[in-house]
Every structure is written in C-alpha cells, then in structure tokens.
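User: Structure please.
Assistant: Input sequence and predicted structure:
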Amino acid sequence: MKRLLIGTLCGLAFVTASGVSAQSASVGSAAPAFSAKDLAGGPVTLADFKGKYVVIEWTNPDCPYVRKHYNSGNMPATQKRAATKGAVWLSVSTGETHSATELQSWQRAKNASPTATLTDTDGRIARAYGAKTTPHMYIVDPQGTLIYAGAIDSKPSSNPADIESATNYVDQALGEAMSGKRVSRSVTQAYGCSVKYPSGA
C-alpha cells in the first residue's frame, strides 16, 4: 500500500498534461501576450502591467501540492512579499474545474492576495506558456521578458514540513532580478498535479 501511494504521488508530480503545445515560452524570450477575464469578469492583459515584474502562478485548489503551499501559508506569504517589492501576481486557473465563486471563497479562506486570478477556460494561456503542473511558476520582467520558469521551491513533495528547508525559487529570482543581478536559477523542474486542460485543448 505504501509503495502504491508513493507511485501515485509521483505520477501526480511529473505527468505532462496531454494537449500541451510542443512550443512553449522560453526564458530569455518575450513572454507570450494574453488577455483573460478575472474572477469578477473584468478584462486583464499582460500588457496592463508593462513596466512591472509579473509573477504568474498556475493553481488548482484540489491539488495536494497546491494545498501544501496554501494550507501552510507559504504561497500567500510569497504573494505578499512579491507585492511588497512592487511585483504583480497573477494566479491562473485553467479549464472549468472551479467556478469564480468557488475560487474566490477558497482564496479568502487561505488569505491569498494575488493581484488578479484569471480564468483560462479554453487553455490558451496554459498552452502559450507550456504550463504543465499546479503550481507552475513564471516571472516576467518590466521589459516583458520571461526570466524564470519552474517550481515554487526546491522540495518536490506534497509535505508542508519540507517548506522550511526548501529554497523558494520565486523569492530568490525576484530578489536577484530586482537587485540588478542575473537570476541564478532561471529554469527549474516544476512539480505538482497536471494542469487540467479542457477536452480538445
């Protein structure tokens, strides 16, 4: 039983979602432009935040890896630290797994504070970025260049106890970039549950 559970968790962590385009955003290149609706139905585009650092986070409340970072308070705290530095945080929900009301209620319960949460119902944003997991993290610099893509941290597990000893790659990348330094780890292996692409996407 224990071996089966470990195998199941590993399957969740590194399965690539079917329907992901072979071409995806690459670090060092222009971040793909997008337009989407937020949870209130208002329009949001990447261009709205030109001149700012933008963190993009793929999320899914049902995923144990997402729950690891939200139930522990790690993801909300990372959001707040990014905002304190002047960065924008966009959470993205791909597919139609959760309604806007459900996502809003969950975020309030977890004290989450993204700048906006985008509904990517047709999977276009996820395909453009090559998002594979929840969470999957990206950072765009003020010039619109993608400077980070990968995991939230260095411990690919669903165990909250691992957070304390992990390197938070988003904190690290933002801190380095905002200090005028080269991002030391600009690409890492994302881990989590597979992104729930809509059928046919």
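DSSP finds six helices and nine strands in the chain.
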